[in-house]
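Appendix C reproduces, verbatim, an entry submitted by the partner laboratory led by Prof. M.T., so that reviewers can inspect both the input and the predicted structure.
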Amino acid sequence: MLRQGNERDKLGGCFYHLVSPTSGSDLAKTCVDILSYNTQSKINSKGDIYYFSNKSVASWYVFKVTIIDLVKVVCYIKSIETKDYPTAVK
């Protein structure tokens, strides 16, 4: 997203696709907590898979606007529908 924002003057973001952005520091703390708990209680011996995300929810459009604003890149983000998002997947 940052590379594209620096290379283009506008990007599209789907307003209806919701994501749950996760803080890297929150994820790291959770991993340490799980590993610490695992060592003490011998859980996860079968290779369980854990899922973690922060509670917040944002659309891809809002997420892109926020990131571009934070890094102060001059790039217009246009709200688009899913059908208008360019993708190789059909």
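The beta strands are 10-14, 18-19, 58-59, 76-80. Additional entries are available on request from the coordinating office.
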